[in-house]
User: Fold this.
Amino acid sequence: MENCFRPQEKIIYNKPESRCSDVCLPGNRKKPRSSIHRCCYDCVPCSEGEISNQTDSESCMKCRDDEWPNEKKDRCIPKVLEFLSYIDGISIVFITFSALLCVMTVIVKGIFISHLNTPIVKANNRNLSFVILVSIMLSFLCVFLFLGQPQDITCILRVMTFGVIFSIAVSSLLAKTIMVYIAFKATKPGSYWRKWLGGKLSNSIVSLCSSVQVIICLIWLSSSHPFMEMDIHSYQDKIVIQCNEGSVIGFYSVLGYMGFLAAVSFVLAFMVRTLPDSFNEAKYITFSMLVFCSVWIAMIPAYLSTRGKYIVAVEVFAILASSAGLLSCIFFPKCFIILFKPEKNTQSCLLDNKYRYG
Assistant:
């Protein structure tokens, strides 16, 4: 016989719930409404740099200095490290141009060596020409010190390396210009200037002018040298790894002295630019110093108005542009004559040997 009795079923009634606000999801916080009901509130997103990882959170938490909220603002993630790496598009462009210009400098040097005893190479002190070529080549190579993640040693070598290299190059141009001036002062028989002709004076000028820059760099190193730092304030979601110049006075002293040498070379070359063209290369030095000064003057406002890795890009561009200006203005005209106008590279096209030095 079937059991006609069934167990009594338990009926569960849901408790009615009354809400005047929605649930605040992670990434938001409660904001009390201006009403008579304290339980009513609005959900507002967390502020910049803050997160909430709980539902109906009363407040948001601030991320650490090296972290930043994700898109949902429910957790902190490490900030992106920014520096001018070797794989950046602009770095690849710089590396390409630096390599090409370095190879071009080696080719120019090879042309000069293969035509070492020709009049156009011997004129205007060929030893100084080789010093300038080596300096230009090293300036193209020092671009690699500015690329990649900065370290304390690279920060020290960056500005000081190109400062000394450029000082040697500009000092050599200054010596060239002075020797051109002295050579034409010594054309008169029995002239007092004849004893100053030769390589000793030019070498002394280069050594003295370059030594001043080295002393400035040593003082800078001993007082407050450059170092690597992490800038967490320029960008909210990035940490910029950059070089702190240490002493601002030291940094601008290096650039200022380099500019002083360029200005003196420009003025002297401009003064003697009208001397006979067959011997005189002062007009090429004038134009090269004009390009050099223009690049670095334009670099200053660009340097002061940029941030992050683009400051390094401005410095690298200035180095490449000024070095390329020296190479093209000083040496390309001579290479053109050597390769394509050999009839002008003869003794008859230059002044007599008594007016020539080097």
About this structure: Strands lie at 28-32, 41-45, 50-51, 61-62, 67-69, 76-78, 80-82, 227-231, 238-244.
